[in-house]
Amino acid sequence: MQIIPTAISLPLLVYLYRPLSRYFPTMNKDRYARRVVAAANNFFYQKFIAVPFSERILFLPYCLRPQGCPTVIDSEEGLQCPAECTLPCKLRETKELALELGYRDARIVISGKLHRQQGVLRSRDFLVRHIELLSPRAVIGCLCTNDLCQKYLHPDNLSPDGTLGKHGLKVIPQVVLLTSQNCRQSSVNWQTLRDTIKACSTS
After folding, report:
1. I want to staple 181 with a disulfide (CB 3.0 to 4.6 A). Which of 36, 144, 149, 161 is the partner?
2. Block mean pLDDT (10 aa), the chain, length 203
3. What local confidence, expressed as pLDDT, does residue 1 receive?
4. Distance CA 159, CA 6 (A)
5. In terms of Cα–Cα distance, which of 181, 151, 188 is closest to 28?
6. Helix crossing, 190-198 with 90-101: angle to 10°?
7. Integer Cα distance of 124 and 87 in angstroms
């Protein structure tokens, strides 16, 4: 049973994250981030499902690509799937699902930290640039708790109307967290991710 309404608990959790992590360095940040995401997803869910697919963007992390993926990195467009690739790939299938539903865009985000020498933007800058260019009303982000804590878990990013306010944007979010923080080979609950992509008020 939820004792504190999400409208109160969510900003409180976001506001307290940095002070708590500073004064309690052994705090389980992964568990804390998952609580924040659960509260945020719950708070924004009804607004999110009311947004048409055509006004949504999906961002997927390239750490979900299968082993042996013939990676084609485009510094502007993100990870590109070669047309001739025949590897079974849930990452490609998930991207195609969103586009078939009519999503405004679906991008596979590359780690700028690992591929800086190839001119790849930091993942946050990549995401912000594409939101600025395409002006979606809603965004699904799939990422690890480490990225969430370092780049997005800040009070200036949160408002009742959406997130990323710190970057001059306002989008209605849903977040699906990865099961680990492994930048090279991670995993996710694919069913949860697909359900989130397909969620709409008329379903």
Report:
1. 144
2. 72 92 92 95 96 97 87 83 86 95 95 68 89 96 93 91 87 95 83 97 70
3. 43
4. 13
5. 181
6. 10
7. 28
Residue type, 111: S
Domain spans in the chain, listed from the N-terminal domain onward: 6-198
Q: State the DSSP string of 128-185.
A: HHHHHHH--SEEEEEE-HHHIIIII--GGGEETTEE-GGGT--BEEEEEE-SS--SSS
| Nearest-10 crossing angle of helices 6-23, 29-49 | 150
Hunting for tokens 């539903």 — which residue is that?
101
Residues pairing with 143 in the sheet: 177
- Structure tokens belonging to residue 35: 């609580």
- Neighbour-count burial of 60, counting CB atoms closer than 10 A to its CB (0-12 exposed, 13-18 middle, 19+ buried): buried
Is residue 130 within 8 Å of residue 105, measured between CB atoms?
yes
pTM, full prediction: 0.92
Task: Name the residue with tokens 């260019």.
Answer: 133
CA dihedral 36, 40, 42, 46 (to 10 degrees): -170
User: Can you say whether the dihedral through the CA atoms of 11, 174, 120, 90 is positive or negative?
Assistant: positive
**Residue found by looking up tokens 């924004």 in the block:** 44
In the Cβ-directed half-sphere of 167, how many Cα atoms lie within 13 Å? 19
